[in-house]
Structure formats: C-alpha cells, structure tokens
Design a protein that fits this description.
By secondary structure, the protein is of the alpha/beta class. It is built from 17 helices and ten strands.
Length: about 375
C-alpha cells in the first residue's frame, strides 16, 4: 500500500525553518577550514549518485514489503551484500532509510519517496538524474558556461527535446520524471490556490497529464483539457478509461509553438517557459494568448528566483536549463517583462510551500 500524501505545513513556518536551516549550514561552513567546507559540498555529488543507485536497484520497493536483514535484502535484489551494506551505510547516515537495532533495514519518511508506488514518488526523477545521459551532459557544464549554450547539440547533434522525441528510452524516462515532479508539487499548489473557481482548465505542455488529473480528482466540478505532442500523451490516451475522468477530461494534441485549445477559463503552464529562451517563451505565450478569451486567466507554475543570496533550488535548476535546454529560471521582474511583451499583465505571484510559485496573469488586450 502506498504511503499517505504528506501534509502541507503553513508557508510562514516553512520559510522560517528554511532560513534556520540555511543559517546553520552557513555557520558550519564558517567555522571549519575553508578547504574542508568546500570538499564536503563537492562530495554531495557522491550522495546524489547513491540516491539514484538506490532508486535503480529498487531498494525502497523491497523494503516496502517489510524490514529486511542485509543478507536477505541482498539476495532479493540480486546484489553483493557487502557493497549493499556500504551503500546503505552512507544513505542511513543522511537519514535516508533506517537501520534497526537487529541490523535490518527499513523505510522511513524520506525513503518512502523512492518507492515506485509512493503517494509522492521521486524514483523516476532520480533515475533520470542518475542516468548516463544526464551525467554526461553535466560533465560538460564548463563548456556550457564558456559558450552560454546547451551542450546537447554538440554532444547529440540536436537539442534535448528533439533528442527525447527520437530516442524514446530517454524521452519516456524524462516524461516519467516530469510526472514525478508534478506529484511532488500538487499538494502545495492546491493548498495555495483555488483551482475550483474555473469551469475548464487547459494544461499546455501537460506531459502525461498527472497534474491536471490530480486537480480534477480533487475538484469534482471542473473540466480539463490536456494538450501536448501526440507521442507524449499517447500513454494517457490509453489510461483515460481507467482514470474515471472520461466525462471531464479531454486530450488534444499539437505544438504549443503553433496552436493551443480554445475555450478555457484558465490556461496552465507548469515548468514550460523556463525550458526556453525569452524569444521562444514569448512565442509560446503569444500562441496561448491568441487562444484565450479576454476573461480567461493564465497560470504559470514556475520557480521565481528570490532576491536573497541564500541557497535555493532555483539556482540549481537554472544551471540544468543552461546545460540541457535553452531556457533559464527567472526572477519576478523578468517574468513581468516577459509577460508584458507577450500580451499579458501580471496580476499577482502566489508563493507555495514548495519551490514553485503561481504567477497569475490576464490578457492585456
């Protein structure tokens, strides 16, 4: 049975805890030798690969059936027992998995997210980040900084989205990873914004439709339209009869550079514009604007870069955009400028407990 979805803490509490955490980390770095602090930060890359290895090996799925002794777990996974102990020793030390007094291992609140059937599962996201494809590209970060351009065309002969469309093993893994990201944020978005005020929501670049289907399940009165490329929504088309949403969810296909469905009360774009340059993002937004009625609303769900100098997830994903896409993360001023050039007026920015904010805009003409 999948674990229950986490409760969303109040936004002021989450922000206060975040500032406290950042302050403690900064204090630690200040009072150890600089070279030691730098080494500790760099070795976090080993931790990220260890998490991806745990996802690949299916450790959490095995432990979801109950605690396991090391030998039993190794046999079930088909891995070397000593090597498994060494991997889990690191992960347990960071609070990922727990080791019992009898030496066995069990799941905890963090490792629940490594389950393939978790209420919030990040397994596919970690499989993508840990893939050889992704590691190879990030190995060329210095090249991206030298040129200011994505490394995909030089390494693969094409940009990421072209590569994902023609190499469906990576494309399917990426689509599942983005579905995992949607599952990560749905509770925080619903806690921050009333999607039930709209009759029909059109999700532009919806991927496999996980965010919109979750919204529809929790808001029974509204209807939804999933819009993406045919190869991206093909799996959703096959699943639609089993979702119980056949009377409220429709699927339309096409490219958001060329067209968008008409008749929506709200147009939702989650993690779309950050993938693209300002020129391409403006082209996408203008296409959506042409499909919108004057009273409709645009809802951009994206990271808004903060003004403070503390660590923030957007500073990581901004480099992901540099390495693997043509886009960037943007601050509030940049979003306002982009929306104004695209025919919109930014009404408000609604923060959430998670890294994303909801930018609500309306047509300017």
């Amino acid at each position: 049975m999948a674990s229950a979805a986490p409760k969303v803490p109040p936004l002021p509490l989450a922000r206060a805890v975040g500032r406290f955490r950042d302050g403690l980390a900064a204090l630690h770095r200040r009072f150890v030798p600089g070279h030691i602090a730098l080494l500790e930060l760099h070795m976090m890359g080993f931790l990220s690969q260890s998490i991806s290895a745990a996802a690949q090996l299916g450790i959490a799925d095995a432990l979801a059936r109950g605690p396991r002794q090391p030998g039993e777990l190794a046999r079930e996974l088909g891995v070397d027992e000593d090597a498994l102990r060494r991997l889990l020793r690191l992960l347990v030390s960071f609070g990922i998995f727990e080791q019992r007094r009898d030496g066995g291992y069990q799941l905890n609140r963090m490792s629940q997210a490594l389950r393939s059937d978790g209420a919030v599962s990040l397994r596919d996201l970690f499989l993508f980040f840990g893939s050889e494809y992704h590691r190879t590209h990030w190995g060329h970060l210095a090249d991206a900084v030298r040129t200011g351009k994505s490394v995909g065309p030089a390494l693969d002969g094409m940009d990421f989205f072209e590569y994902a469309a023609t190499n469906r093993e990576i494309g399917d893994l990426f689509d599942r990873a983005m579905t995992a990201v949607s599952g990560l944020s749905v509770d925080t978005l619903l806690a921050a914004y009333d999607f039930g005020q709209f009759g029909t929501i059109v999700d532009i670049g919806a991927g496999q439709g996980s965010l919109l289907t979750d919204i529809l399940r929790r808001t029974p009165a509204i209807h939804g339209v999933v819009f993406d490329l045919p190869e991206v929504v093909a799996e959703l088309s096959m699943q639609l009869p089993d979702l119980g949403l056949a009377d409220r969810l429709t699927i339309e296909t096409g490219s958001f550079f060329d067209t968008a469905p008409k008749g929506g009360d709200a147009y939702l774009l989650k993690h779309i514009v950050h993938d693209w340059s300002d020129a391409d993002a403006e082209r996408i937004l203008r296409t959506v604007r042409e499909a919108m009625d004057p009273a409709a609303r645009l809802l951009l769900i994206d990271i808004v870069l903060p003004e403070h100098g503390r660590p923030h997830v957007g500073k990581f994903t901004d480099l992901e955009m540099l390495v693997n896409a043509t886009g960037r993360e943007r601050d509030a001023h940049s979003f306002g400028t982009l929306l104004s050039r695209s025919g919109f007026t930014l009404s408000r920015i609604i923060p959430t407990v998670g890294p994303d904010s909801i930018l609500e805009a309306h047509p300017a003409w």
